[in-house]
Design goal:
Low-confidence stretches: none
Largest sheet: 4 strands, antiparallel
Structural class: alpha+beta
Radius of gyration: 21 Å
Number of helices: 2
Strand order of the largest sheet: 1-2-3-4
Distance between the termini: 64 Å
Strand content: 15-25%
Shape: extended
Length: 97
Amino acid sequence: MLMENEIGSLEPGKKADVVLHDINRPEWRPLLNVMNQLVWSADGRSVHTVFVDGRMVVDGGRMTTIDEGALWASAQSAGEAITVRSGLPDMAKFPQY
């Protein structure tokens, strides 16, 4: 790629994307073949920390670049508004008697 001065190793001044997994989870045990487990067993739930271009974007499994609570609330409101506009009955809600 002819970018060896910018990428390819973890060194000060170089760009880096790094994902750290919490291996103290069931999908990582028994810890025998890390590469196989990363490909075949692990999923996003074990992601603990992510750096993109050297900037932390996930810390402790939470996004640092957005307000997750506000995003979830916005998604909920948008979904409910779509249901109302559709004119269809809201079958997703658990019946309350």
